[in-house]
Design goal:
Elements (H helix, E strand, L loop, with lengths): L1 H10 L25 E6 L2 E5 L2 E16 L2 E12 L5 E14 L10 E9 L10 E12 L2 E11 L5 E10 L6 E12 L3 E15 L2 E12 L2 E14 L1
Antiparallel strand pairs: 1-3, 1-13, 2-3, 2-13, 3-4, 4-5, 5-6, 6-7, 7-8, 8-9, 9-10, 10-11, 11-12, 12-13
Length: 236
């Protein structure tokens, strides 16, 4: 059913500008246009950590602009292992709003946004529910764009946590722009993670962009490696 739904979306024409925030863990201070859907989709990605090798297929984030400067977001991913049951993880339902229009909205200065997320239980993983609030600041210059994320979290196992992320992008008018991301995440008394991602975004046209990223993380000093590939498209 999900595959057929994505196939239908891909068959439709794209019409709204896409600001891909794939392949990142952080996000930008922009939302989908009012009345528009934006889909961030990875049909197939790869991860290797202490749990072994996992194929992630698919990972999806669905954004709908239901009002001016507001969107609702549903996201999650399916992970598949050779010797373990498949699972659905990273599920969340979010409400995101632009609280100050700036350079991402073709105005001057910093764009500021707020995102409130309910962290949903998964399937065969991620028991329980939690909550996360993220403050986002973005600024675009001729030479590139920067996005800063700061978040406070109540994890699914009811522990306090925090997240800090920084995205750097090359010039917006380059067809293929290099990107990088550095993150720090901590669930107090249980887990600490630092990660770096290097990649590129290829903007094919307004409303369609492809991405590729290589991410290396240290989770409690243990390595976690990922290859992320996907696309972002939008439609009215």
């Amino acid at each position: 059913m999900m595959a057929r739904a994505f196939g239908l979306l891909l068959a439709l024409s794209w019409s709204a500008p896409a600001f891909a925030y794939r392949p990142f863990d952080s996000t930008d201070a922009a939302v989908a246009d009012k009345g528009a859907f934006e889909v961030e989709l990875s049909p197939l990605s790869f991860r290797h950590d202490d749990d072994g090798t996992a194929w992630i297929a698919p990972s999806a984030r669905l954004n709908y602009g239901f009002a001016e400067d507001w969107e609702v977001v549903l996201e999650g991913q399916a992970e598949h292992f050779a010797r373990q049951r498949s699972r659905v993880t990273e599920s969340a339902l979010s409400l995101k709003s632009v609280v100050r229009e700036g350079s991402l909205q073709e105005k001057s200065g910093w764009s500021l946004a707020s995102e409130e997320s309910i962290l949903l239980p998964g399937i065969n993983a991620d028991d329980g529910a939690g909550f996360e609030w993220t403050g986002i600041a973005s600024q675009r210059w001729d030479w590139g764009t920067i996005h800063i994320n700061l978040a406070a979290e109540l994890t699914r196992d009811q522990r306090l946590g925090m997240f800090a992320g920084l995205i750097l992008e090359g010039p917006e008018d380059w067809p293929v722009r290099p990107v990088a991301e550095v993150n720090y995440q901590r669930a107090f008394s249980t887990e600490e993670e630092t990660s770096i991602l290097l990649g590129a975004i290829w903007k094919v046209r307004d409303g369609l962009a492809f991405d590729l990223g290589f991410r290396h993380a240290w989770v409690n000093s243990r390595p976690d490696e990922q290859v992320r590939a996907g696309l972002t498209f939008a439609m009215n």
